[in-house]
Amino acid sequence: MVFFATSFINIPQHILPFPSTASSHWGSHTATRVDVRHCNIHFKLEASRKTKLEDTLLDAQKVIELEPSFHVGYHLKHTALHGAQYHSEAIEASHMMLTKLGSAPGMQIRKLREKHVSPSKAEGVIQKSIDVQLYTAPLRLLNTTTGRLCDRGAQISAFKTSTEYHELLLSIMTHPDLPNERIAEAVATYFRYVTLSHRWGENEPLLHDIQNKIVYKLKAAGGLVKLQSFCKLARHSGFHWAWVDTCCIDQNNSVELQKSLNSTFTWYRHSALTVVYLSDVPPSSKSGALAKSAWNTRGWTVPEFLAPKVIRFYQQDWTPYLDDHSPNHKESVEIMDELEDATGIDARALVGFQPGMRDAREKLQWASTRVTTVPEDIAYSLFGIFGIQQPILYGENSQNALGRLLEEIVARSGDITALDWVGQPSEFNSCLPANIFSYAAPPCALPYLSEDQIQTAVSSLRYTVAVDQASQLYDRLDNMSAPRFANCRLRLPCIVFPVTEVRWRPGPAQETSFTYGVKADGLDDLLVITEEKLIQFSQLRPTRRTFLLVLPWDRRLLELPDFADDAESLEGWSEPESAGESPGEEESVDSESHSRALRLIVRLGQRFGAFLLAQQRGGEYKRIASDHDIIAQVKDVTFIGSMMNVKTLEIL
Question: Which pTM does this prediction carry?
């Protein structure tokens, strides 16, 4: 029987029953009687299974010989091999079956043919899912089984030789209506990967140190110990792939480095798990050790713990932090509360962070105390947090890198809160800070007006303010363009208050800073503390140089509705039939318009953070940086003329 099988259907040797000598493998003269009995039972069951498979294959071969053009024999062969999980042989048998079905006549045969998919078509369906899955995956990944670094081609090749691939291929071939979601899920499960968040140490392995080598066989020293431990942890957690920033990026390839740094946030975002390794947190540490870790001071770790949806913290010996073995530490209230206290980031943002421009000033504050080895990285590490991509230009200096980031934030969002800082001005643009530390202090906190307070103020203004003039100011501000950057120049819409006097005043820290009393048309007198030495002047001793105090225009003061919310509320809405607006309706519209204008006047009458600008020879302006927020207030809100000087200024 064995001779017949191997002669006619070429059954692989691993399919045939064990030879009689196999019993020597299962036991020896030193084995216990229980072990021998167990092994004999195992051998008999395995031999029985193999014999049944062989008999089925022989039956299939006989059918094929009797009628070579008929599909039934190949169908039997495919079914037997598939059931025994000999996938390659089953796929070959299925392909032959489809070939026979394709040439067979009859309606029933054609219907049977439609119930199967050819291997090539099934492979194409899977390839589409692979392309989608790998689009957001790192370019290189470590195979946790083999310990080898794999590029995209090697990752796909590993999948196509896997049991998972063959099982999926067979499922598609025999189930043409298999939902795409099931296929995508199977592909995604195989290509799940784990990312590492850590503080770089000495002798970290780079790409050339591990390329074409087996990580597990390299001498365990320095950063290789961490790399090997991480790969083993990922493998034991059931993942085929792992990614580490030290060795999975070709640092010498500028094109790859550019793509990788712009994609890092996305890669962490789509990882199945991010492992945070706290190399300076000893085993069995108590709560509070995470907050003290050096990992918590680094710039790149901010996106690395915000981006992932699943994260686990590990101590120095690779045991879970606080002995928390739960699958996701973002669901641990204790750990998230500690991280919130350490970072100043609300726990809700830590768990459900969404990238984008919203709350730009707050996000800049998160990064304000972080440090990076390479100065430009403090800006590059924030690209993903704001959802932007920009050129990576190492050597441009940190001010230029941060300037390009802030320029993009203001230009794309129109949000001017990024201009709210105290410290040294940037060489990139004087309205931007020289370094990220300038955002460490909370933004300028101004008094909050309740709705009752606003309504009371509006009622009093109705009898003291020229409402038509207030409406005119409202319309002018409503039509102001958004702030725009171009070639390091900021076009900033402002309400302008010309400075009429600057006088030096005695003040603290006179060796490093100067204190000036400043007067401006329409504003209360105020003090400015700055490291710059200003020209003193007054109306009696004027200067040819123009100085301005300005309120940077913020459209939020208009209290306009969120149009996205409006779109949702308009679903199912239809315009009522009307022959035209009645006089009463016109009066109502005018009343609402006047009310909006007066509400704006009330808000403009509150204290605000002002910029002090000095005109340059070319007519542009530069911001005079101050050591403290410059808080200004309109003298008399009933005199609207003092606020009608609305301009867009060009600031260098």
Answer: 0.81
